[in-house]
Design goal:
Beta-lactamase; three-stranded antiparallel beta sheet; seven-stranded antiparallel beta sheet; alpha+beta
């Protein structure tokens, strides 16, 4: 009888555990059959770039493996201005099982920074701002002296990261905006990390301040400036700036996911999503490819300005790991240059990689921060399938 009671209790306990797990947690569902796009290899014209089919096969196998491990997102590889591989994997909403489509916008996270820098370059070419202009010329209440626009662009301002001092100086749960960050600086003057122009120190504050300079110099909101001067001219129809202070709900079907205590959970839309410039832009692989191609022309800014943006700005940093005007810069031993940026924010991981010497482009947008972690060199190596097994 005792054995029976023990067995019954054990079975009941298992049942309760299973019920609790089913009710209060969820795992990543089995992925649907992916949407393929490799057809350009078959339909290529003689004038198109010649691509080894092994390249697309290797790219596809790589992301299939990542997909089986939980990767979800959109991928685009291009060579010489031609898309050679484009695909989506997984769901934008794990609960609803909505397949990711090519026109679904993703939060770009820090891949927003090159676009913010591009807006500054446009204003510089128009003579509205200059790289050596002090910040207080446009933001008179800015309390720190000796910091100019160039320092912000290349992360040499020494400013503290607002994501850290905001927690202490903004204890309520209200949405915090760029103006609020400036107000906190004016009122409390959080200690700087370094003297201006002393040393490279990556700080999201720099690009939040740049977004405010764009607004005050142009007379437009950051959102409207990008829409009128970058997105609309290039036909980037699925790109926009999300500011939680302006709209509580994100206007995208793609939700970011992250790990929490071994579970995959939906990333919260936190109050720091009211700060833009360092993040906040939503876009697609197709729209970013339009931007990529425009950067080989004079449509947005001239090539002399872009050469400056793509040049390493820090003598003390390595040639293969440097920073320019909004872009990370990798110069190899032959002087060949790759510019790129990656991002990570609230369930999203993003990569925008441009090999300038070969005109190769890699764009990866993932809505799972845990399984979306990829190395930039690893992504670039997929172009060289003929040389690797």
């Amino acid at each position: 009888m005792r054995k029976f009671n023990f067995l019954a209790s054990f079975v009941m306990s298992l049942g309760l555990i299973a019920f609790a797990f089913t009710k209060f947690s969820f795992t990543v569902p089995e992925e649907p059959e992916e949407i393929n796009y490799i057809g350009d290899l078959v339909k290529m014209d003689p004038t198109d770039v010649i691509v080894d089919s092994k390249v697309t096969e290797k790219i596809h196998r790589f992301f299939k493996r990542k997909n089986r491990a939980g990767f979800s997102g959109a991928v685009l590889y291009a060579d010489g201005g031609k898309v050679i591989y484009k695909n989506t994997f997984g769901y934008g909403d794990y609960r609803k099982k909505n397949r990711i489509e090519f026109d679904d916008p993703f939060q770009l996270a820090s891949v927003s920074k090159p676009i913010t820098a591009l807006a500054i370059l446009q204003l510089q070419e128009k003579g509205i701002v200059q790289f050596d202009d002090p910040v207080e010329k446009f933001i008179p209440e800015f309390p720190y002296k000796g910091i100019n626009i160039r320092h912000l662009l290349i992360h040499k301002s020494g400013l503290p990261n607002y994501m850290y001092f905001k927690s202490k100086l903004w204890p309520n749960r209200n949405v915090v905006t760029n103006d609020d960050i400036i107000c906190m600086m004016e009122m409390h003057e959080p200690p700087i990390y370094l003297l201006p122009n002393k040393k490279y120190n990556y700080s999201n504050t720099n690009y939040g301040i740049l977004a405010s300079i764009i607004e005050r110099a142009s007379g437009l909101s950051y959102e409207d400036y990008l829409a009128q001067h970058i997105f609309e001219p290039l036909g980037m129809k699925n790109s926009f700036v999300y500011n939680k202070a302006e709209m509580p709900k994100v206007p995208s079907e793609v939700i970011g996911y992250q790990k929490h205590r071994r579970r995959t959970i939906r990333a919260a839309n936190i109050n720091m999503n009211g700060v833009v410039g360092d993040k906040g832009i939503y876009s697609t692989v197709d729209d970013l490819f339009k931007l990529d191609q425009a950067l080989y022309t004079n449509d947005l800014v001239n090539q002399n300005t872009l050469r400056l943006a793509f040049s390493p700005a820090h003598e003390r940093l390595y040639a293969h790991d440097n920073y320019g005007l909004g872009w990370r810069v990798n110069t190899d031993h032959e002087g060949q240059r790759t510019v790129y940026h990656s991002g990570w924010w609230r369930g999203f991981r993003t990569y925008f990689i441009r090999e300038l010497y070969s005109q190769r482009t890699i764009i990866v947008l993932s809505n799972n921060a845990y399984t979306g972690f990829l190395g930039t060199n690893e992504l670039r190596s997929l172009f060289h399938a003929s040389n690797t097994p």
